[in-house]
Design brief:
Elements (H helix, E strand, L loop, with lengths): L2 H13 L2 H7 L4 H15 L4 E4 L2 E4 L1 H29 L4 E6 L1 H6 L1 H11 L4 E6 L4 H7 L5 E5 L9 E9 L1 E6 L18 E3 L9 H7 L9 E3 L3 H10 L4 E4 H11 L1 E3 L9 E8 L6 H17 L1
Parallel strand pairs: 3-4, 3-5, 8-9
Antiparallel strand pairs: 1-2, 5-12, 6-12, 7-10, 7-11
InterPro entries: HTH-type_LysR_regulators (IPR050950), LysR_HTH_N (IPR000847), LysR_subst-bd (IPR005119), WH-like_DNA-bd_sf (IPR036388), WH_DNA-bd_sf (IPR036390)
Keywords: DNA-binding, Transcription, Transcription regulation
GO molecular function: DNA binding; DNA-binding transcription factor activity
Length: 298
């Protein structure tokens, strides 16, 4: 199994055409076909079939596609890491970050990372599930930084807790319950929360269960912080936010933190990796900076 064979196979899998794959690489069509045949011979199984609708992956091809992508990504990372050690250049970091971390700690962490690795190529995504884990799975991403979890991780993923965030209940300044001091008085209100959809409560729902209270029944599920801030600014919704986010964002959105007597459960910021994968020097440095600064700030 050789690098150019994997490259040809992945191009064909992406374009579903020998001609289009050859044009994208760029190689001749016979060269692409030869590489595919050599790879199939090495593996002992057919990877593609040709038809009137173009090239389709076989069952073996579909299963091999993810592995081939990972092999290519890991090969690229290995080359970059060796170049980083030898010349101090070539580092690449690809990470998906949740909105709360992006709006609070990420600018400081990224500034420190760029100072340590000034010539590094940084690729940032907003963490959107499940596409972030799919990108992590196929090797596009090095890391996913997530606040809390709304569902169990798949067996091929592993989580490392980094730091915790205090929580507050937020509402617009004109909300009739904005001066409430107890969670119980808020149970019949309209809430905007990322409901888990599982038997295990989401971190936001745990705010209530931790105090022996039922989860409110009037919940609108929302999985976007941008949407949540926009809606709560204009409507009588309540929601749960990180206290650090409240300090930086509530003022300019016209929101207030409710003066509740109860101490709300903290949420955990974690980094998600492929289980058993070896972090690159750059990725580990980013995680270390995020953990250190997160603990210092909270």
């Amino acid at each position: 199994m050789k690098f150019h064979q994997l490259r040809c196979f992945l191009a064909v899998a992406q374009h579903r055409s020998i001609r289009a794959a050859a044009r994208a690489l760029p190689l001749s069509q016979p060269a692409v076909t030869k590489s595919l045949r050599e790879l199939e011979h090495d593996l002992g199984v057919p990877l593609v079939v040709r038809g009137v609708a173009g090239v389709q992956l076989t069952e073996f091809g579909e299963a091999f596609r993810l592995r081939a992508s990972l092999l290519m990504q890991e090969s690229s990372r290995a080359r970059e890491e060796l170049a980083l050690i030898r010349d101090g250049v070539g580092a690449t970091l690809s990470v998906a970050v949740g909105s709360t971390v992006a709006l609070t700690l990420l600018p400081r962490v990224l500034a420190a990372f760029k100072q340590a690795y000034p010539r590094a190529q940084v690729n940032l995504w907003e963490d959107v599930q499940p596409s972030s884990l799919d990108r992590l799975r196929d090797g596009t991403l090095d890391l996913v930084v997530m606040q809390g979890t709304t569902q169990p991780l798949d067996p091929d993923m592993e989580s490392q807790p980094l730091y915790t965030l205090d929580s507050v209940v937020g509402a617009r300044a004109q909300h009739p319950l904005v001066r409430s001091r107890s969670l119980r008085s808020l149970l019949d209100a309209e809430w905007l929360l990322p409901s888990s959809g599982h038997d295990v409560h989401s971190p936001s729902e745990h705010v209530f269960t931790a105090h022996g209270l039922p989860v409110p029944k009037r919940i609108t599920s929302c999985y976007s912080l941008t949407l949540a801030l926009a809606l709560i600014k204009e409507m009588d919704y309540l929601s749960v936010f990180a206290a650090s986010l409240a300090r930086t964002e509530f003022g300019r959105h016209g929101l207030k933190a409710l003066p509740l007597r109860e101490l709300l459960p903290a949420s955990t910021v974690s980094v998600i990796r492929r289980r058993g994968s070896q972090a690159t020097i750059a990725a580990q440095a980013f995680v270390d900076m995020l953990e250190r600064m997160g603990k210092q700030a909270h």
